[in-house]
Amino acid sequence: MVDLARRLGLAALFAVLALLTVGTPAHADPATVTKDDVTMELRKDGVLHVVEKITLSGAPMRRTLLTRTRYDDGNDRVYRVSNLKGASFDGEAITFTGSGTVEYDVTGAVTPLTGGEELRWFAVAGPAEQVTVTVSGPGRAENLSCFAGEPASAIGCTGASIDETGAAATFEQQGLRDGEVLTIVVGYPKGATGAAPILERRFELANAFTLNAVTGGALALLLLLLGGGVGLLYWTRGRDARVVGAQSGVVVAHQNGQFTPPDGVRPGQIGTLIDEQADVIDVTATIVDLAVRGYLRIDEQPRQAYDAPDWLLVRLPSAPVASLLPYERALYDAVFDGRDTVLLSQLQGSFTAGLGKVRDELYQDVVTQGWFARRPDSVRTRWTTVGVVATVLGVVATVALAWFTTYALVGLALIIAGAALAVGGQYMPAKTAKGAAVLAHTLGFREHLASGEIGSIPPAQRIELFSRYLPYAVVFDGVDRWARVVASIDGGGRPADNLYWYQGPAEWDLSKFADSMRTFTMTTSGAISAARLFRSF
């Protein structure tokens, strides 16, 4: 019985030991170089040929080569490894699969000095127990040194010596740990190889925008160009200011009860003349002007308390359509499009498509009138395109110059110049002398409209005359004032229920005209703005 218990106890002990043996993984020792004999030959072309006989203990080992170091504030020094045999190299590290011999070439390890040349290479990286390095070159070794430890370490290696002839230098190091490097330095006579370091610019944002003669000159040139641009703007647009200043003054647009706008300017032309832009309000004013001049009639539709207001535009069959200016005819055709009547709320489809032609005809009209030498929109587009292209090129140039050189300020100057052109291009259209004179008279007419003076106009002529004023008041943002002027007058001593060009619903009279006209212009401008073809205020 005791013998049986003893046997069972031994069996349990063996089982526990077996479980412990199986359950505890074995840890392989890290790979270590037990012995490393390195022979280096510096050739006449400056290439360092390395032959390394390595004895490994443990698993295959990966050794990272130090192929890039800081050279100065703007550059890195690069050591190029090539022609490697006996191991694998991925561009950063050599992988040793076992003991053996490895060969490779290093370019860029020679530095020219004032009185000679210096060979510097990071011969062996740890861990390594025993290292010996022998170096020969194209001339007599004049001096040598070596360092062991971190790559920037100044601690000397175990030993360094030169043979009696100076043809070979020998370095020794023991106990090189993981992360440590043996760096060897050998001095040779001047011109021994004629080689030079390989430098690659290191990207640093501060260095990329260095201010020097080139970049400073480019910035100065930019300021000169911008100053010239300001001068050009003054020369082109300053002429407008000089003529307007010389011919300014209040202009009345009627004589002997007849409406005579200054220089025959029509409402739709005014906005393009003043700011070189075809605006939504120019088209709205033209619709009102066509009604006032007898080409169409505006009928306000009856509505309930919560209905949206609407108007019926009615084509007048006896209107002399052939006498319309091209932009007016384009608008007239876009509104009716073969119809005799159309609700303002239904101005979509063909109307929106036709507005593109209206805009083009407006710009062409100011050239035909002789107010501009070229279409304002074409001038703006040309300058804006040049500015955008210059800005894009400036961005590309800045990135490239910042990455490869220290001249990024030159590209930045191009960006600024391009942006200035793109913005300044909006102000480049210039009026002719005739256009500037017409502008002066038009602004004088605006002063007269702003005063709202009726003057000594016979009552029988007031409705027609001041109706003719109203489209201009729409352009000059004075529709409320002039609508009230129109609403306050009568045609023969008694209040009028309607106008010859504007009809209201039942129980509507001129006392409501100001509100109706304000709502009509806002609604019409909204319908035109939906096309996104004209500038809105």
UniProtKB/TrEMBL annotation:
The answer to whether keyword Membrane applies is yes
Show which residues constitute the signal peptide: 1-28
**UniProt superkingdom:** Bacteria
Query: Which keywords label this protein?
Result: Membrane, Signal, Transmembrane, Transmembrane helix
Q: Is Zinc included in the keywords of this UniProt record?
A: no
Domain (DUF2207): give its ranges: 34-186
Q: Where are the transmembrane segments?
A: 209-235, 383-403, 409-428
User: Ranges for the Predicted membrane protein YciQ-like C-terminal domain?
Assistant: 260-484
Query: Pfam families from the xrefs?
Result: DUF2207, DUF2207_C
InterPro entries in alphabetical order? DUF2207, YciQ-like_C
Q: Which protein is depicted?
A: DUF2207 domain-containing protein
